[in-house]
Amino acid sequence: MTYVIGETCLDVKDKACAEVCPVDCIVGADEDRMLFINPLECIDCGACVDPCPVDAIYAEEDLPPEWARYTALNALYFEDPEAARREAEEIRPRVPGPA
Ligand code: SF4
Ligand code: SF4
Question: Is 59 touching ligand 2 by the criterion CB < 6 Å?
Answer without folding.
Answer: no
